Structure formats: structure tokens, C-alpha cells
Amino acid sequence: MQYDVIVIGSGPGGYVAAIRCAQLGLKTAIIEKYSTLGGTCLNVGCIPSKALLDSSEHYHNAAHTFKTHGINLDNLGIDFGQMIKRKEEVVTANTSGITYLMKKNKIDVHQGIGSFKDKNTIVVTKDDKSTQELTTKNVIIATGSKPSALPFIKIDKQRIITSTEALTLKEVPKHLVLIGGGVIGLELGSVYARLGAKVSVIEFMDGIIPTMDKSLGKELQKVLSKLGMEFYLGHKVTGATVQGEEVTVTFDSPKGEKKELKGDYCLVAVGRIAYTDGLGLENIGLTVEERGRKITVDEHLETSVKGVYAIGDVIKGAMLAHKAEDEGTFVAEIIAGQKPHINYNLIPGVVYTWPEVASVGFTEEQLKEKGTKYKTGSFPFKASGRARASGDLDGFVKVLADAATDEILGVHMIGPRAADMIAEAVLAMEYRASAEDVTRTSHAHPTYTEAMREACLAATGNRAIHI
Q1: pLDDT the model gives residue 143
Q2: What pTM does this model have?
Q3: All domains of the chain, ordered by start, with CATH?
Q4: 56, 201, 250, 334: which has the highest count of C-beta atoms within 10 A?
Q5: For the segment 257-292, what is each residue's pLDDT rounded down to a tens digit?
Q6: What is the three-state SS of the chain?
Q7: 60, 69, 445, 466: which is the annotated catalytic residue?
């Protein structure tokens, strides 16, 4: 079978690339080794974790905030099996939607492991070990990533688990020991903390969500501490062992003191690593970086082999579904002869705890390191009428703008619906808006997004109205 484009991997990057290629008139196929489409994001990542985050937030509010709204409940309880069942139903609906989109766009789907025979020939190895050869003019590698591990800890997938197993537990942990204070760990940790688990976070760096603006990590830690989560920052994990139903995690303090925590589950959430196994890259002369296993690409996301492209988690940059989607569209349009662009500084990052955390552009730490002169404006949600009405008073919006030109250089927020609100900041920065431009844009009242306008007012000469 001859194609214009074959996409290997059906995650957000892969399926979006395939759809855009088909829209541009290219005969397209997609290869997926699992029985369902959607990759990590739809099956064991973004979508199922958000389903559990929403369910756990509903329970937490019913237990702790409904009374303030005049809603009284008796005999409140958790049907954890139903919670997991609903999560699986959400996943099925989403993956079925991708299958529909493949049919709608006349994209051939081949189930099996795709590997290179040569740069124009892909071998698909099916579950029954039978093979099929496909020929193509172009290939897009979109095979995503898998959870990273620590070499001295054995993941048994029963008591010492990754994010994948954390989505299918049969019970709410009594004490979850979480290794890693990044996005994935904190989201899942907050799920179980809301459901009544004790959650202990061990983080090697001196703050949680260490890649984001430090002010966000400090505020998020304060909020999560209210849930009862405890933090061991600057601590180095040295081991984890299982005895029966108990896990013992050992770690060193910043001063070198030996410590240990005992729990019934240990979640190892220390990032993700590019998944390039079985691609047969050596057959076309491609190698991957020793650490991180990333594939090197040029400014067009093309590898050193002409006609072979790579996107998403297998190349440099943040491992984010929306980055992969943008890159999928970008490569499809490059293949079709168009001239698209991606501004990697304007790919937003989000943490789906509650309150949510979102960020785009430069952090204060980065601006200081670059020597850029900037001004800052901040607005707390406790001064927002909409936030006070909903009871979501934690957090703030912080805007960083160029001291001379007033151009917005970074926006960092923690608060209700920050994941949705960050889009305004991304759009403003894409068109190089100044803080004043945002202040002169009408924002509906009462809304959470007014906090963005107020923060911009604060950045333009301390003009915030409501603080």
C-alpha cells in the first residue's frame, strides 16, 4: 500500500498530524500498537486523570464546602469502583471519537508495531506476529513517551506504581508516598488526598513544580497543605522496598540525615522518557540521545533522513499534548509546502490541581537570568467578586511586562479555571500585546478573567482598581 504520509503513533500529536495531512489532500495512514487510538493522553494520561480529578473534587466539595452553600448531605460516601468505572467510560468515549475522526477523514488505521525497513518502507507487526509492508513518501514519528523510573527502585505495579497504575487502583490508599513534586505526581496526589488518603511528597528540588515560576510553587504548596499533603523538599530518595502490603521509602534530608516513610502505596512520578523502542531507527541511520532518548530534528521538525519527521514527546521540549498537536499540524503543513510557525515560548503549561496552575512565557527567574528589565503586576483572587461568590479565594494572577515597551513577557496564575484563563494570555502574547492593551479590553463582570485585567493594570503603574 502506497501513502503520501504514514504516522506512527496515534496520540494527540499523531492523530492531529494525520487529520491535517488528510485535510490537505495527502493519502494518509496511521499505525498504533494498542487496540485503542489516542495514545498516553487519552488512555492513561490527560483524559483519565482529569476525570478522576473532577470526581474527587466533587466529593471534596460535598464533604467540605456544600454546607456553606446551604446544602446538607447525610451519609456521604465514596463508591470508588464507580469513580473508576466513570473514568473508563470517559476514556472509551474519547478514544471512540478518534476512531470516528479517522473514518471521517478517510485515514487508514493499521494496528500493530510500526518499524522502518528503510525510509520509505514501514513494516507493521501485528499481535499475531504477522507482518505487512507499507510504502510512503513521508513518515511522521509520534510514538510519545512512558513513565521514567529510578534505577534503584523496582516498579512492581502493585505497591510501587507509576501514573498508569495510579489510575486503576482498586482502593483509596491509606498513605500514598509520592516520589516527585512535578505536575503528574501532584495531580494524582491531590486526587487521593481529596478522597481521604494521607499523601507525603518527596521532591529532590527545593520547591514543587520546579520548572514553573517559583511563586506558583509556593502558593500551590500552601494550598495542597490544606488538604493534609505533607512535603519533604530538597530530599533525595535512596530506595523503596515492599513487604506484604507495606512500602518503605528511604531518603536523605538536605543535611544528610537518613529518613523513611511507610505507606501502602508508593507512586513514582519523576517525569517521562521518550518511547522509541522497536522503531528500527538504526535501519535508516538514526540514533537517539543517550539520556532522554530524544530524536534530533531541524527547524522543520525533519530528522537527518529526508522525509522522516518527528513530533511530540520524542523530540526536545516540554512533553505536553498541545505542543504535540501544534507540531503535528506544523509538519503536515510543511509536507504540503506551506510555511507554518510555532512559537515555543508561548506553549502554556498547566497543573490540573484545584486551584489550577497555568503559566506561559518567561518566569521571573528567567528574566533575571537574562538581565531583562521588567515590571510586574499581581492580583489576588480573594479580591475577585466572582471568586468570592464561588468560594475560590486562593491564588493570584501575575503579569510580567517589559519595563520599557510594556510588552507582556510572561503570565503566571494559580486559581479557579486558570487552565482556561491562560488562553487569553497566550493570545495576547502571540500578537505581542502590551499590558495596557489588555487593560483596555472589556472583560465581563463578574468573571475570573477580570483578574488578568487587574494584574495588567497593576503592571502599568499600580493601577489595579479592586486592591
Answers
A1: 98
A2: 0.96
A3: 2-146+273-344 (3.50.50.60), 160-270 (3.50.50.60), 355-459 (3.30.390.30)
A4: 201
A5: 999 999 999 999 999 999 999 999 999 999 998 777
A6: CEEEEEEECCCHHHHHHHHHHHHCCCCEEEEECCCCCCHHHHHHCHHHHHHHHHHHHHHHHHHHCHHHHCCCCCCCCCCHHHHHHHHHHHHHHHHHHHHHHHHHCCCEEEECEEEEEECCEEEEECCCCCEEEEEEEEEEECCCEEECCCCCCCCCCCCEECHHHHCCCCCCCCEEEEECCCHHHHHHHHHHHHCCCEEEEEECCCCCCCCCCHHHHHHHHHHHHHCCCEEEECCEEEEEEEECCEEEEEEECCCCCEEEEEECEEEECCCEEECCCCCCHHHHCCCECCCCCCECCCCCCECCCCCEEECHHHCCCCCCHHHHHHHHHHHHHHHCCCCCCCCHHHCCEEECCCCEEEEEECCHHHHHHHCCCEEEEEEEHHHCHHHHHHCCCCCEEEEEEECCCCEEEEEEEEECCHHHHHHHHHHHHHCCCEHHHHHCCCCCCCCCCHHHHHHHHHHCCCCCCCC
A7: 445
